[in-house]
Design brief:
Elements (H helix, E strand, L loop, with lengths): L8 H14 L4 H18 L10 H13 L3 H20 L26 H9 L6 H15 L4 H6 L5 E2 L4 E5 L5 E5 L2 H12 L27 H14 L8 H14 L4 H8 L4 H7 L4 H11 L8
Antiparallel strand pairs: 1-2, 2-3
Helix pairs in contact: 1-2, 6-8, 6-10, 11-12
Length: 305
């Protein structure tokens, strides 16, 4: 990383170490925080230390940043600054945060498309289970929709993470947080065929041993880009018109569960969200489900006029 913090380096290093060691943030997240602070340092000038900035300095810098950046980027910058100055307070480098009176920019919430249950069925049935690649691809799709996994969690899942007796998968999620997710009965049956009928081993080349469940045709680890490609590929084969990406299946999983009566807390645990507020944004209630619940639960909903 290129440093722009000749004066703030000790404070920056401590801040990044806290994110990494205390809060378990991923390296990508830590790098994003670093880049945000680096950008702000360039805006205010090399002669100014971030630790000494006041409210007026930050308002001006954020306004300049907002000229060339989207609201979502400005919102992220503010999150970074709040966290940084809270760290300085905790470590007694500052008595208060200059961000206290600066209103947060609300980033627009862009929810991904949600497939209907019928579309999900069509998507899964497009995989040819008579072929090795079709079986593997079907399981990849099942992991994302059936268990709500992120694409990064799918490609890193290992054979030893599967517990067939309990019907669960051990997942190494964001920030190295471990959680256990259930596997659908159909997924478990396909997994047993895939693992024990020689389908997975057919992807292995020579004597190379791999721990990952899903392998490429060259015997290596599949990439996230490849998972994106198969989602698009089977989406087109299923005649689905909406733009698709791996997150669509994860979001569809959460939405279908919510519509079927699952509580938000359960979905939060399944998806591996640290904050329930993330889940509340991520899972939205459809108008149809809202009307159904209202009609069956509100005491005056069905009362004659």
């Amino acid at each position: 990383m290129e440093l722009f913090f000749a004066i703030d380096t000790p404070y920056l290093d401590g801040f990044l170490d806290e994110l990494r060691l205390l809060y378990g943030r991923s390296e990508n997240t830590i790098d994003s925080y670093f880049q945000d602070l680096s950008t702000l340092s360039r805006i205010v000038g090399a002669s100014r230390a971030l630790i000494d900035l006041d409210e007026e300095d930050l308002r001006s810098a954020i306004s300049l940043y907002a000229i060339d950046h989207a609201p979502s980027s400005v919102a992220r910058l503010q999150v970074t600054l709040r966290a940084f100055f809270q760290y300085l307070i905790h470590e007694h480098y500052r008595a208060s945060s200059p961000m206290e009176k600066i209103e947060s920019v609300r980033a627009p919430v862009n929810l991904p498309e949600v497939l209907s249950i019928e579309e999900i069925v069509r998507l899964l049935e497009c995989c040819n289970l008579e072929t090795q690649r079709g079986m593997r691809d079907r399981l990849i799709l099942e992991f994302m929709y059936g268990s709500g996994l992120r694409v990064s969690e799918v490609v890193s899942a290992k054979v030893d993470d599967i517990d067939f007796e309990q019907g669960v998968l051990r997942v190494n999620g964001k920030g190295s947080r471990i959680r256990v997710v259930p596997l659908a009965t159909s997924t478990r049956k396909l997994l047993q065929r895939y693992l024990f009928d020689g389908i997975r081993s057919s992807f292995l080349i020579g004597r190379v041993r791999r721990e990952e469940i899903f392998l490429s045709t060259r015997g290596g680890i599949i990439s996230r880009q490849y998972v994106w490609q198969i989602v698009v590929k089977y989406g087109k084969a299923a005649g689905i018109q909406a733009p698709l990406h791996p997150h669509t299946l994860r979001h569809s999983c959460a939405t279908h569960m919510l519509n079927a009566g699952a509580d938000v807390r359960t979905i939060q645990v399944l998806l591996g969200h640290v904050s329930i507020s993330t889940t509340q944004i991520y899972t939205h209630v459809t108008p149809e489900h809202l009307l159904e619940v209202y009609r069956t639960s509100h005491p005056r909903a069905m009362e004659a006029i």
